[in-house]
Amino acid sequence: MLPADVPALWLRDNCACPDCRDPLTGQKLFQITDLPEHLTVDAVRPLADQDGWELVWAPDGHVSRYTAAWLAQPAQPDPRTEDAKQLWGSAADLADRLPEADWTAYREDDAVRLRMLEAVARLGFCLLRDVPLRDGQVQEVARSFGYVRETNYGTQFEVRVEERPNNLAFTNVAITPHTDNPYRDPVPTLQLLHCLVNDAEGGDSGLVDGFAAAAALREGDPAAYAALTGTPVPFAFRDDTTELGAHRPLIATDPVGRVNEVRFNNRSLGTLRLPAAQTEAFYAGYRAFARLLLDPARQLDFRLNPGDCLVFDNTRLLHARTAFARGGARHLQGCYADLDHLFSTMAVLGRKEAQPC
Ligand SMILES: [Zn+2]
Questions:
Q1: What separation in Å is there between the alpha carbon of 18 and the centre of ligand 1?
Q2: What are the residue boundaries of the TauD/TfdA-like domain, all occurrences included (predicted)?
Q3: Which end of the chain, N or C, is less surrounded by CB atoms within 10 Å?
Q4: Is there a common fold for 8-71 and 82-350?
Q5: Closest by alpha carbon to 252, among 271, 278, 277, 233?
Q6: What is 82-350's CATH number?
């Protein structure tokens, strides 16, 4: 039997007949306002060739077909929200194992590539080893699953000590855990860092799961969590030629309250101008969240060696760097990319895998 509680309008909106969907693209050919206002099912017949039903609609007599398998499909979780993630609150949660693969295997074996991209989607990062030590190679890594996002820092940026830095990243000081470019909307959702040289004393890397910290804040300090999800914060960046700003909360949630983005960067948090009570609530929340995020126990520490390329979700993970000796050689090349195409490449690789040889 066709399940009784399936809304008629939902069924009709999902009709896959060639009048309703373009057979070539699968895209819908009608507007919701084109459908009859009082739509009812006039007749239901079992499909002759497979398990499912053919429906005849009143008042327009349109005929739709639905398989039982299609009706039974579960809803897909939004891959950007915490629901689709494996949260980790410490290195131990990752069983002290990094999601890593050799570049050549990643390039040549679709299953390895899929595993690495799934690690970025699920854990927030992956580490590619033995990536060729070539200028611009980091962009090749981005192009292996998507597109480079160009910004005012260029198509790629050099993370090394500069004479006149426009950002503390380009000095030798310690950089505490942060997300990049919170002053952009949309924010670059992925970041890549490719290590070319790391002979310096210090200069180690760290990652923190911002979604796990947000979940811990929600659990332990609901008022702080409410203050952060409910307060848009002015993030800002300026130098000689650029002035950027975005008003976004430190913890963003989707319409049903699931965490889907964290922005945390003390260097680019601008000045809030709110009523005193709201300001105080925000600062209490900000301090509570910062305590969690900056707790060394939450940080996964490792050292990037020449040839290592880290790919991570900049909407979720914070990254950090210890200070290193001035004059010590350290050179990383970085670029931004976006999750859209990482998810797309995962889906297409999954499609390939599902097909019989
Ligand atoms: Zn139709």
A1: 7
A2: 102-336
A3: C
A4: no
A5: 233
A6: 3.60.130.10
| Half-sphere exposure in the Cβ direction for 104 (13 Å, CA) | 2
- Residue 356 has a pLDDT of 47
Is residue 349 within 8 Å of residue 110, measured between CB atoms? yes
Kind of pairing between the strands at 317-321 and 52-58: unpaired
Distance between alpha carbon 199 and the CA centroid of its chain, in Å?
Answer: 32
| Span from the CA of 74 to the centroid of ligand 1 (angstroms) | 22
Beta strand pairing call for 125-129 and 317-321: unpaired
Going from N- to C-terminal start, the domains of the chain cover 8-71, 82-350
CA triple 195-198-200, angle to 5 deg: 150
Ligand 1 centre and the CA of 14: distance in Å?
8
Are residues 248 and 262 in contact, defined by beta-carbon separation less than 8 angstroms? no
CA of 38 to the centre of ligand 1 (A): 16
pLDDT tens per residue across span 224-283: 999 999 999 999 999 999 999 999 999 999 999 999 999 999 999 999 999 999 999 999
Structure tokens at 79: 């891959």
End-to-end Cα spacing for the chain: 36
**Residues belonging to the chain:** 357
For ligand 1, a single-atom ion, the residues with CB < 5 A are 15, 17, 19-20
Summarize pLDDT for 57-77 with one digit per residue, the tens. Answer: 999 999 999 999 999 999 988
DSSP code of residue 307: T
- 67: Cα within 13 Å, side-chain hemisphere: 7
Nearest to 117 by CA among 82, 143, 145, 140: 145
Look up residue 202 and give its two tokens.
């210090």
Fold of 8-71: NE0471 N-terminal domain-like (3.30.2020)
